[in-house]
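Researcher: We're teaching a course module on how sequence relates to structure. For the next exercise, students receive a sequence and then see the predicted structure as tokens, so they can try to spot secondary structure elements on their own. Here is the exercise chain.
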Amino acid sequence: MVLDPKFLEADANEVAEQARIDRDAEIASLIAASRDPYDQLPLPIRLRYSKAEYAWLTDAHKAAIVQIECDPEY
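Model: And here is the predicted structure for the students to work with:
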């Protein structure tokens, strides 16, 4: 097994950070490629509503769900 000299010289933190950035970019591109609006919702909303529950919401509620669920109550 031959190791790339650049890898040997790189700081382990830099390698881990780049791997995280690459993984996050891949996840973001998969979500963006999804045609299902549910998959594009923020995680807290997807944790509160199942895909089936979201499907039963009215169109008006779906349109305002991010504001309804994520804005603080004063």
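Model: If you want an answer key for the exercise: The first helix runs from residue 5 to 9. The chain has a mean pLDDT of 80.
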